[in-house]
Amino acid sequence: MITPGAPGPDRFGAGALAHVAGGAPAADRADRLHILRVAGSLVEIACPPTVAMHDLVLLGSAGLPGEVVAIHGDTASVQAYEYTGGLAPGHPADPQGRPLTVRLGPDLLGGVFDGLLRPLGCAGDLLTTSGPATTEAAAWPFTPRVVRGERVGAGDVLGDVGARVPLRLLVPPDLSGEVTRIASAGAYPSDAPLAVVGGDEVRMAQSWPVRKPRPVARRLPADAPLNTGQRAVDLLFPVARGSTVAVPGGFGTGKTMLLQQIAKWCDADVIVYVGCGERGNEMADVIEELAELTDPRTGGRLAERTVTIANTSNMPMMAREASVHTGATVAEYFRDMGLDVVLIADSTSRWAEALREFASRMGELPAEEGYPASLASQLAAFYERAAAVRTQGGATGSVTVIGAVSPPGGDRTEPVTAHTERFVRCLWSLDRDLAYARHYPAVSWSESFSRDAAALSAAHARAGDPGWAERRGRVARQLAEADRLADLVELVGITALPPRERISVLAGRLLREAAIQQSALSPADAYSAPAKTAALVDAVLTVVDRCLEVVDAGTQAEVVEAVDFSPLLRAREAAGPAETAPVTAARDTVLARLAETA
Amino acid sequence: MSGPVEVEYTGVRELRGPLVVVEGVSGVGWDEFATIVLDSGERRHGLVLEVDRDLAVVQVLEDTAGMNRTGTRVAFSGSPMRIPVGAGWLGRVGNGRGEPADGGPPVLGGSYEAVGGAPINPVRREPPNDPVLTGVGAVDVLTTLVRGQKLPVFSAAGLPHLELAVQIAAQATCGGEPFAVVFAGMGLTHADTAFVRDGLAARSAARELVLFLNTADDPVIERLLTPRLALTVAEHLAFAQGRHVLVVMTDMTAYSEALREVSAARGEIPARRAYPGYLYSDLASLYERCGRIRGRPGSLTILPVLTMPAGDITHPVPDLTGYITEGQIVLSADVQAAGTYPPVDPLASLSRLMRKGTGAGRTRADHPAVAAQLIAALARSRQVAELADLIGRAALSPTDLRHLELQDAFRDRFLPQGTDEDRSLDDSLDRAWEVLLTLPRSQLGMLPADLLDTHAPPRREERR
After folding, report:
1. Residue pLDDT, tens place only, A418-476
2. With contacts defined as CB-CB under 8 Å, which chain A residues touch B389?
3. Would you say residue A114 lies in a domain?
4. ipTM of the complex
5. Which of A271, A553, B2, B384 is the most buried (most CB within 10 A)?
6. Each residue of A30-62: pLDDT tens digit?
7. What DSSP designation does B453 have?
8. What residues of chain A lie within 8 A of the CB of B319, using their CB?
9. Residue B220 resides in a domain
10. Where would you find the membrane-spanning parts of this chain (chain B) (predicted)?
11. Nearest CA to A65 among A95, A86, A39?
């Protein structure tokens, strides 16, 4: 939530006074505080020399928020975050002397906000220009963990906050000293002062500039797996907590569906879902579903661990530009409490378009396809806000960033896709042919990668699954081999292949249909626990091994192909999200049928 | 449309393309609507593109031909462009400036609304979940249009997309609830315009239709306003008056070309294929105006029609449209060549919201399963047909041959329909069953057994 009325460090006021003291007439001062030029989201204002880059400016009598993006002489260019219709030269401009900040607090959880973190829950049916940000009056249970007189440093825990996800009250990043006051256990609103440290009051709610990453003690290697519950991902292209993922896919390849599945089922503590320039009906759908679904781990509603930032494609374009930074700031706020956070941005291409739009209005020289030359560095900086960290207070936490990319025309050489691929550790490439064949999630096994796989195989081995890397390698080889043979079959027909190759083709089909495909709509299959994923894959691989043995022993390949494998194909639906016994049973049924062919 | 005229400015400094630069203005806001009076007394209209100190850059809707520096007076309305809204539009025809084009009196609404609209709060949106029935079997059964959805028709030059759009506009209903169609034609030829007016005459006479028409020789900038006028009128009919409204917008390619032309005239930096970089956001500002709002009875459904240049689905207009809309109905030249109307390609078409808008209580209990099974069977049929081309029919298995029969049955019994034939959903679904039952029961695994027993008694199966 931005707080337009809140007093910041009064840089502007001081500057103006100095200016007046310097002998300029007072009328001149009033004259300097107005708008000079309006061209869409680009607004030029007269400004005193104290206005700094990235300062927040409130424009017009409605106080539309904007940000200073360039200063030349005594004018400043401001990027307005809302529709500027009706703004005219001469209207007031009010520099706030501080950058765009958002209000962070426990009431973010379960809420839906716009790109500047203003709550949408209390806005009207139609979004017109900004009204005052309202704060919720809910009270949160607080239990102190320090006593008066204790010395604390930045990031230290002052107490526990019993929100929907267990939260902590921390000493703010730039503060340390002696605790001179600490509230007793009880319920407090989020903006009540709960402690005084080094002379400064500490509240649950705090402000933070969105473009400034929150400080940490140090970055840690990302080596713990994030279980997404999606087999195609967990099995083949796993992601570590604190890593980065890009999901490129043309329209209709199921990008949003995959990201929503991860928002629902991955085993992070907090999800920040940024719908950035996407469909309104889709946002309505995800908001409704999260409110209905139960979190398998806590028993609460999934919505209660989720912060949704909804900036649909018809909402102001420049707020879209801010929304990914807003999301990253919210994610870091929860990370600092020692939580694992997943930040999902759908879609970063729309964010890049907002960058392009504004660069074009500023008259910047265009680089590739009209995007500004800074596109690559801005993308890299955004993905760098992901990390597994040791927080200032000594806890471990992480922010994992998953960004969708929407390449125009499915063209993977376009600038946003091409640059993003270089900066991320994992790529889940969605394939139009797979989606067209209704193979979901349509994660391509030939065009995706995970640079976390080696670190994670060690983590899986430590966690008691030493066969993880071997299993992954075999599945990848088997799928690649089946693809290679499929091309051959199209030319010469399946009957021309030797028996072992025919079993390879069969193995590819079994792996795809029994293990890799996953139905987002089925309650049993939408989420797959690591044990179930492993059981499904092991079942298929065991069956494939037996098929090979059978043909090696002289049985005709077509006899093996004609065996009814349907129990194996149905096993992912027949077994519950974390069950393995029905999978083993299906495997044994199929093995028995194979034995009959021998 | 404009409010009271207050101050007239005469200081025209520059005329360039569609732009007028007026000097000496004060208090003029960005995006204001302006009225321009020429020497001859002719009135034109414009929008403020930029205000810089005492200069205002105005884009003239009707073009600047005949305007000079001394005899031109410009007045600003103090607000963005507005249009009167209300039921008075039903049965009327408007032009691309929102003025009556049917020779009738001005439309007087109770209120005026800004044509740009305001985004619907995502939290206040009600997810769409009831169908709009179009009376076109291929659409109703396989790509059901859902109230509040945006579902485009992707077509190519020479295909009957206008016939299909008019047929849907003429036939669509929402189960007897109050319904209206707003039809926006952009860049249509005069022949097409006449076709649209004829085809929709009955609906217009029934006061269920509003037409906004911008012909190919009308000013290009008005082409950009036409869909906005239509949507503004439609929003009022839907959300203030509780009607289910279907907005048909054709042709979105002509619209996008107008956007490109205007962007070039403004000297903006071009992006892909010289379309402006904001094409996605601009299209979204139209398409996203569909939806339903919690606690309000009406709905706004959008059916944009676009022609893919050279049939290329990766062209920016269909591509960006596909990123915004919730599915697509694709027309195919192959089906058209076989003489079938409507030439819908069932496999490339998709309605993403269909799952929520069909089934018991919405359409018919068997509908979702029948649609899914028919798509799956047609996908298999297509593979078999490709195989048959390579290796010959003789080498196909009996099951494969049945799939070829299914494809024939689909093209003979299910798809073809007259341009004025309003086919009931029951009829369409029964035809779908008839097509499906060309396959043996063992190939219909996606249909629950009880449904199969009702529609295909095992006795009949044994006879086969």
Report:
1. 999 999 999 999 998 888 777 899 999 999 999 999 999 999 999 988 999 999 999 99
2. none
3. no
4. 0.87
5. A271
6. 445 789 999 888 999 998 888 999 899 999 988
7. H
8. 250-251, 408-410
9. yes
10. none
11. A95
C-beta atoms surrounding A538 within 10 Å: 17
Chain A residues within an 8 Å CB radius of B323: 251, 406
Cis ω on the peptide bond leading into residue B346 (within 30° of 0)? no
Q: Distance between alpha carbon B147 and the CA centroid of its chain, in Å?
A: 13
Distances (CA, A) of B171 to A135, B28, B166: 49, 46, 8
Cβ atoms < 10 Å from Cβ of B364? 17
DSSP codes, B153-219 = EEE-TTS-HHHHHHHHHHH-B-TTS-EEEEEEEEEE-HHHHHHHHHHTHHHHHTT-EEEEEEETTS-
- Decide: A444 and A429 in contact? Cβ < 8 Å: yes
Of A82, A79, A49, A52, the C-alpha closest to A67 is A79
Selection from A535-544, B110-119, B265-274 with the highest mean pLDDT? A535-544
Are the Cβ atoms of B278 and A317 closer than 8 angstroms? Answer: yes
Interface test with B, best of A112, A128, A251 (most B CBs within 10 A): A251
Tokens coding B198: 């004829």
Phi-psi region of A432 (alpha: psi -120 to 50; beta: other; left: phi over 0): alpha
Token pair of A95 as six digits: 């520099």
Cβ under 8 Å to B: A residues 391-450: 406, 408-411, 436-438
Amino acid letter for position B8: E
Contacts of A260 in chain B (CB under 8 A): none
Q: What 3-state DSSP class applies to A184?
A: coil
Instruction: Indicate yes or no: CB of B277 within 8 angstroms of CB of A128.
Output: no
What is the span of the domain harbouring residue B175?
83-357
Which one of B58, B80, B102 terminates a domain?
B80
Q: Give yes or no: residues B104 and B154 share one domain.
A: yes
Question: Is residue B396 a part of any domain in this protein?
Answer: yes
Same-domain pairing of A180 and A244? no
CATH code, A580? 1.10.1140.10
DSSP states of A81-94: SS--TT--TTSBEE
Strands A112-113 and A177-182, how do they pair? unpaired
Residues of A in contact with B284 (CB under 8 A): 277, 312-314
Other residues' Cβ atoms within 10 Å of the Cβ of residue B282: 21
Whether A46 and A88 map to the same domain: the answer is yes
Closest among A190, A192, A200 to A154, alpha carbons compared:
A200
The number of domains in chain B is 3
**Which of B414, B459, B460 has the alpha carbon at shortest distance from B436?**
B414
Residues 72-101 of A with CB under 8 A from B: 83-91
Query: Tens digits of per-residue pLDDT, B134-177?
Result: 999 999 999 999 999 999 999 999 999 999 999 999 999 998 99
Query: What DSSP assignment string belongs to A475-500?
Result: HHHHHHHHHHHHHHHHHH-GGGS-HH
| A390: containing domain | 218-450
**A285, A353, A366 ranked by CB distance to B127: nearest:** A285
How far is the alpha carbon of A85 from chain B, nearest alpha carbon, in Å? 5
Quote the DSSP letter at residue B363: S
Answer yes or no: is A362 within a domain. yes
* A287 lies in the same domain as A422: yes
Which of B148, B288, B322 minimises the CB distance to A252? Answer: B322
Residue B116 token pair: 């740009």
Q: In what order do the strands lie in the sheet with A139-144?
A: A166-170, A157-162, A139-144, A186-189
User: Are A275 and A410 contained in the same domain?
Assistant: yes
Amino acid sitting at position A177: G
Q: How many CB atoms lie within 10 A of CB B24?
A: 12
B193, B213 contact by CB (below 8 A):
yes
Amino acid identity at A569: L
